[in-house]
Amino acid sequence: MLVKMCKHFNLVNKHRWNVFKLAVKAGIPWRGLVHDLSKYLPVEFIESSKFYNGKLSPYVTSRETLGYSKAWLHHKSINKHHEDYWYDWNNDSQRAAVIPYKYAVEMICDSISAGKTYLGKAWDNNKPLEYFNTEKKKEVFNPRTIDFIVSVYTQISNEGIDEAIRKKNLKEKYNKYCR
User: What span, in angstroms and rounded, lies between the C-alpha atoms of 173 and 26?
Assistant: First the structure.
């Protein structure tokens, strides 16, 4: 278990470092600095270490094994860069809020970093859009947030990360789709 804990710790640090670098480019350095700090809390860290395999998120492995992930339930409930945080099961008129700019951009940085961390050399500029289109449950997103994210991921596919992940570009896209 100690070896898994060390490997998971290194993986979290690698992921957070990549998010931070992207967040600085995006003009939200503070969000990058505080990104995923809850992963070091015992409720998340212990379970994630137990289910660590280096190829897949421990949340996924825990869900496959136990049917749920206590770590994920905690993580998404306190981290505003996850779409689930903004979903209100009890609001019949509008269940999914438009995610505020800084958290929507952090979500994009998080997704890119997670893809690079887990896929390694298999990651390319098309992966964020492919993942979003095939894996994400769109019903937990506000349609305007979807349009913003798809616009950014499409630009990454066509022009690369350096062009898409720039503060001015992200602000313009967010204002176009989410304001």
Answer: 12
